[in-house]
Amino acid sequence: MSQMPSHILAWKKSSEVVRMEQIPVGDPRRTVQGFEADPLFHGPAPRIDYDDPYEQDEDRLKKVTRYWAARDVEREQRTRRYDELLAAEMQASIQRREAEQAAKEGMAGPSGKEKEAPKTPRRTPRKAANVPPSDSEEEKEDGDEAPPSCVECLRKRIACVPQPGKKRSCMACYKRKIRCDFLDKTAWAVLEGSRRMAESVRELAGMEKRREYFRLELKWYELQRYSFNLQRTGELDAAAADFRLLQMLHLKGQGLDIPEDLEERFRTERLNIKMRVRERVEAVEQNMDEVRREAAFRIPSGESADSQTPYVKRKANEEEETEGEIEARAVRTKRRKVFSDEE
């Protein structure tokens, strides 16, 4: 066992000992690359110079290993010193307590009085659980306590008003000339527990209903945002189609020969984009209508779930179209399909 250094022996109390934590072997601070000196250890730290061509990795590893070996030795010495001081303090405390106890017994000895045993408190017998109190016992109870309802008043859901001077008989049972029976505490506890359980179930059902409502509302708003994005994208594509059509007309005005099918495609491109966007928007609005009918909530404009949506209004307007408009729309759709097949 190595001898302790003087700065460790200078500590005379366990509270003065500066203890050091245990650093495991795999800690990065014990390696060469991540070396970090312990501030509590005052030994010389190794100087690692990576620019020195004569210093190899093995030399640096030896320096770090010697440093941590010396640090672990001092940690063990400090721990041993702390354990010795703590054991000495505990032994001194025990001896001091025994001396004080002996001094107290020595002072009480000459008087000749024996030490009295501590008195145990008397235990009062408990009352029976389900025994109804008598009239004399009820008179001793506080008058501020609200009387419980009898079985008949509880069944008819009316206020149970006790007779003056008699708490175990109510006015309603006295007028009907029937026996006034009261439930014991166990039955009241069961009724109260059932009531609270029913309230909890209703509250949970309401929370589930609100959660489903908010989920559908969030889905409706997401569909609405998707519909807005579709319309905005369609407007941008239509503007690009108009620009290409103007360029085509400009080149045609300069005398450039443009095929008829290409010219017709440029002229109908905007219509095709509008019809394609309209179909997608109608599909999204149809899903929005289904969500609204399922959730039955009001939209931000204040309309209820039973009001007509844009999709329903558009369908109603299409039904009122004349035969000529229907034929023209069918021709446009057919032309659009022909161009899409050619592409």
Automatic annotation (TrEMBL):
Annotated segments matching region Disordered: 29-56, 95-147, 298-328
Biased composition, class Acidic residues, residue ranges: 135-145
Name this polypeptide is given: Zn(2)-C6 fungal-type domain-containing protein
